[in-house]
Design brief:
Belongs to the iron/ascorbate-dependent oxidoreductase family. The chain is α+β, with helices and mostly antiparallel strands. It has one domain: Jelly Rolls (Sandwich), CATH 2.60.120.330. Helix content is 31%, strand content 18%. Strands 1-2-10-7-13-5-4-3 form an 8-stranded mixed beta sheet. Bound molecules: 2-oxoglutaric acid and fe (ii) ion.
């Protein structure tokens, strides 16, 4: 998470583990439409599908760091309720992913079961786009804090998307207009927590390999364990790289929906969470993700204009509504028809 005191309270990230060196992009520079920062951010979204967003030196960034601290407090309060209480708010997959997910509900890549507890809170519930849902008490008490975190995260993602619009050469505001807070969507705040597992191997998987299905994800964590499989690498243990959490920074990653919209120019990378490296594996791990999904009314079809490649002969536009598309993809993954893998990152074809 956010601020350095959280990092100081925990064992350090070890120096001797393989790390993916993703660029650290200053949010202040992106706000100022700094050209070099926008280009680096765009290139990172194409090459890695991930970058670090440095929130220092920006008022909006500082506010979001404070909001994220409150979400970390909320994680502690929520999971302290215990799984028996939280089961009353259990999620109902595949129809409804909001609510509590206990450990052991998902298959991991090694054929075992996941070790991550999650509680997912839907945007519409929090901003009032639909009738409020009854959540665990810890969440009900902090509705206002959650709304602030959501609105501020959303504004930061929208600012990033504006720079992507420019780099893609499409009309300003295009990407963010497809995932507004004003319309219903499956956008959510996800609270994640895993307990240390001293009895298990260092490489034990906490949350299996996946790509995020939505448009973009903004993530705060303090303890390592998040890993990315860099594009072009076979999915074997030695090829995965850690993303090192940094104080004052959020981790941003591109989701599958943006890959669709950009005709595969941007990349959504395969990532997972394994047991935290070194001494960090001895403490509980918390993270908060803001997972942006397109509005229910948005289209999944490829955007037109700029450097986005037009559909080739024989290629059909995606016409399914966003919810059907997401349900179809989840079903393919659950049934094993589609192995989750890195998508997009295609070369730019000069017209
Ligand atoms: O906990 C993390 O660091 C990553 C979580 C994640 O990838 C997700 O919730 O989609
Ligand atoms: Fe993810």
């Amino acid at each position: 998470m956010p601020n350095s005191h959280y990092f100081d309270q925990n064992p350090p990230f070890p120096e001797d583990v393989p790390v993916l060196e993703i660029p650290r992009i200053s949010f202040q520079q992106l706000q100022n439409a700094n050209h070099a920062s926008s280009v680096s951010m765009f290139e990172a979204c194409r090459e890695y599908g991930f970058f670090l967003l440095d929130l220092n030196h920006s008022d909006e960034g500082a506010t979001l760091l404070q909001d994220a601290e409150k979400m970390f407090e909320l994680i502690t309060e929520t999971f302290a309720l215990g799984s028996e209480t939280l089961e009353k708010y259990a999620y109902d997959p595949p129809r409804d992913l909001t609510g509590y997910k206990a450990t052991g509900k998902l298959k991991t890549d090694d054929g075992k079961l996941d070790l991550m507890e999650m509680y997912t809170i839907n945007q519409d519930d929090i901003v009032g786009n639909r009738q409020a849902r009854k959540n665990a008490d810890s969440i009900e008490i902090r509705r206002n804090d959650i709304e602030q975190f959501m609105r501020h995260s959303h504004a930061i993602v929208a600012a990033v998307q504006s720079r992507l619009d420019e780099q893609l050469g499409i009309r300003s505001g295009t990407l963010s207009s497809l995932n507004t807070l004003e319309e219903t969507s499956d956008t959510s705040v996800r609270l994640l927590r895993s307990q240390p597992t001293p009895e298990l191997q260092d490489s034990s998987i906490t949350l299996g390999g996946h790509t995020d299905i939505g448009t973009m994800t903004l993530l705060f964590n303090v303890i390592g364990g998040l890993q990315v499989l860099p594009a072009g690498n076979e999915n074997v243990l030695g090829n995965w790289r850690y993303i090192r959490p940094r104080p004052g920074c959020a981790i941003i990653n591109v989701g599958d929906t943006t890959v669709e919209w950009t005709g595969g120019l941007l990349r959504s990378s395969l990532h997972r969470v394994i047991r935290a490296p070194g001494e960090q594996g001895t403490v509980p791990r918390q993270s908060v993700a803001y997972l942006v999904r397109p509005c229910h009314s948005a289209s999944m079809s490829r955007l037109r204009g700029g450097i986005i490649p037009p559909l080739k002969e024989g290629e059909a536009d995606e016409t399914r509504p966003v919810s059907d598309w997401a349900a179809w993809r989840s079903k393919q993954i659950i049934s094993g028809e589609l192995k989750p893998q890195t998508r997009g990152g295609n070369p730019i074809v000069q017209g």
